[in-house]
Request: fold
Amino acid sequence: MLCSITLIVLGFAQAVQLILAGVYKRAQTQTYQSDNKSDFNIPEVASGSRRQAILAVAAIAFYIFSVFQIGFGLATLIFGIASMKSLGTTWCNATLATTTCVATVYLLFIKLLGILLPSGRWDLPF
Amino acid sequence: MSDYTDIFQSLFTLQVLVPWLLAMIFGIFVGSTPGLTATMAVALVIPLSYNLPKEAALAMVIGVSFTAIFAGDIPATFLRIPGTPASAAATLDAHQLAKKGKGKQTLLINLLCSALGGICGVLILISVAPQLAKLALLFSSFEYFWLCLLGLTLGVTVSSGDYKLSGALAAVFGMLLATVGNDVTTFQERYMFGIDDLSAGLSFIPAMIGLFGISEVIRATYRYTPSLNNTAGSADTSTFNPRASLRIIAANTPTITQSIITGTIIGGLPGAGADIAAWGAYGVAHKTAKPPEQAKFGSGLWKGVIAPTSANNAAVAAAWIPALVFGVPGDAVTAIVLGAFLTYNITPGPELFASGGADFIFMIAMITQLLLIPAGLIGILLFGKFMRLPRGVVLSCVVVFSVVGAYAMARNPIDVWIMFGFGLLGVFLENRKVPLAPLILGMILGPKVETYFRQGMIASQGDFTHAFQSTINVVLVGLLTLSVLLSIGMTLRKSLTPPPHP
Reply:
């Protein structure tokens, strides 16, 4: 309750600060009002890169979902190759890097540390 | 003197040295892997040490505890993902320097300052352990409550830059997130929305991996141009540059000294830990810097690298003070080590000092600091090779290791989803220029603040005036007030300063 109240109060204070700072800056510097690099502006994101970021979010969500459905090994192979390829890596390098990554995780986590990773609904080795 | 010679001889045998070095490299690996903490490294190495001689077992456990703390700075510097909570402060200046192409040099300075901080910490441990431990014992719940609040305020002040109000907002939001789960006193459900897996609260490590790892991957895709085929470490073309690094260290001797003192004092207080020490030292370095330098904190200043790293290893050494003298662990790592001591039939307390057992531990801790330099260099070089991989490969691998790290802690699928949720939260907050470090601090210190406050209130039968009755409380409240007032003053001054004319 205390945290919630403090959060509301701070949120309100920040809103007031933004308004006051905006008014103050407008009064002080009318000549460069249109400067996009103001401290309080949200960074511009190009629509193309925004689409790429949304795709990345969707891919990560799908990967996490698939890890618990088809097992860590298979899900990582699919995610790794697909994501590396989409980020400009060649098929050969993507396959090699993903296989190395899966092998490293297998050796270090499963063999050395004894941490069991999700095996999925098909109960694959890992 | 002959005792020390005997200890030295017993340690320098293959039976001890080989597992010791292997454990330290293991500590580097675990510490530099986001999601695997120093606490986990120590916990994992203890079962491996059971079947070894007592000397080797102690060397392994102590070696891991120090190296994992340093290793956390490696991914914090290169990837802005702290390997351990004690390295969160390294995501500020160290990462900025890495982006400017000084990654290896930053880490060499980090490593040398860590070793230096550790050596001084051990020397202080040897010389003033009983006195500091007595002071720590004077702390009751309310003193800890004020100390945690002070740590939080300092953290917000120094890590928020020009966005102090946003930082305060993030810190309180972090504290709110930390209330999720069963109430520790009444076991009442809080913000669980019927999800039983949240009864223990939002797991901190997956949340941290999400905030610093997944969000970084998502944001990296904003800026990504596949045709450039850039590498993750494209900006880091530097070498270790040892001469320049030594000159930087020599020029920052006062910062190192004050950070070691800060780290030792905070680390010696039970419950404070290396993470608070690192933030505390960063705060002190910021406050004591000249105004032009103060403005550069967070944008890649050597002082911002040196202060937290000197303090966190000194704090690890200092955490042993109450642990060895009174059996009160200074932090989670020391608590696990104390548990291991009991299995090796080592009982902390005055008898440990009388029998010479403490000397044995001191010697191991001191040699570990010297071995930290070669072990750390191996870790940095291996991580540097990783950085030369194509950026697409690194981003994908970071996602995979983040998922593994989040899952490995408790083997609970919900932790992975928590990590993902915090990744999205991190992107949202950073796009709105809300700093992430105060959120993390709020999540770390929120439960401590609540617990100590409630313990204090129960002990004082609901009388809050007890929170101001001891000298330590008054000093801490004074420092807290000063810190808040300074922050408000700095924010107001910044807001009212007209922007420079073009």
Chain B touches chain A through 57 residues (CB under 8 Å). The longest strand of chain B covers residues 181-182. The longest helix of chain B spans residues 93-137. The radius of gyration of chain B is 22 Å.
